[in-house]
Amino acid sequence: MLATMMYGPGDVRAEERDEPTILKPTDAIIRLSASCICGSDLWPYRGSNPITAPLAMGHEYCGIVVAVGSEVKSVKPGQFVVGSFCISDNTCPHCQYGFQSSCEQREFMSGAQAPLARVPLADGTLVATDELPPDDLIPSLLAVSDVLGTGWYAADAARVQPGSTVVVVGDGAVGLMGVLSARQMGAARIIAMSRHKARQELALEFGATDIIAERGDAGVAELKKMTRNVGADAVLECVGTKESMMQALECARPGSMIGYVGVPHGVEFDGQQLFFAQKGMLGGPAPVRRFLPQLMDLVLTRKINPGRVFDLELPLADVARGYRAMDQREAIKVLLRM
Ligand SMILES: [Zn+2]
Q1: How far is the CA of 166 from the centre of ligand 1 (A)?
Q2: For 2-146+286-337, which CATH superfamily applies?
Q3: Nearest to 168 by CA among 239, 67, 73, 107
Q4: Model-level pTM greater than 0.85?
Q5: CATH of segment(s) 149-283
Q6: Any idea where the Enoyl reductase (ER) domain is (predicted)?
Q7: Where are the domains of the chain?
Q8: How far is the CA of 161 from the centre of ligand 1 (A)?
């Protein structure tokens, strides 16, 4: 089969690889209905993470189960499933508390930018639908697997409530999903920080009420102006740079929460500054498994359409072009067809 491998910064190839097989009795093999490229795939692509051996790329997936190991009980061949990019048993204490992304048996999914993928701990990781979903819902169901689940977690961790004033820092795919999530949670005001017209328009479509195009201190000043100099009730940080994290902290009012889901690179905090700021932070890899049933239901009943976030569709063979387009910000998020 054709699968996506990253050999080094800027070097992504679709090449012939062996099909995955059941390695453990708790594994499942799925045939992907579609795959996609994640913003986090750009960290190694841009050289921010060292690559010591070729990486089997791809961690967002949904599709049909084709085989299961002897111990798998909750899913069977022929079923359509969505899974989290974090592999979890869904039974350990952390899973029970709803933090499946800190599972005692945690693994990170890989190899899903390919037609077939192996999913470890299938019982704990996958959720099946009652019937096969219609084709037009595939992009939205795929989005649930990571990008929507992560945006949702940012809003959940920031404790967005009905009536909240919410700021979303970052207009990438996750930030846009954060806007959609805050809207679903009943936020009254959702302020998206974005400088790009196409992304601003999508943010408004997903439920943003205001746009701030300024960045850094100027962006914070604009936000303060909008909130009687108080700041926001909840802030979603969806980038992971030092600048975006500082912007998030300064936009949050004392007593509020920041949900941060951009993988931090080069971010450091000053203890005393944090102490006197009186702002809470909860982030990390999203426990998407906690949200899967609810988010899949919202998609299947057509209450949300997160698949709108894909603005470029390519065949898997052109995956290198997809990475380039996201790296150059020519595309928000790329859907890969098998
Ligand atoms: Zn667990």
Answers
A1: 31
A2: Medium-chain alcohol dehydrogenases, catalytic domain (3.90.180.10)
A3: 239
A4: yes
A5: 3.40.50.720
A6: 8-336
A7: 2-146+286-337, 149-283
A8: 28
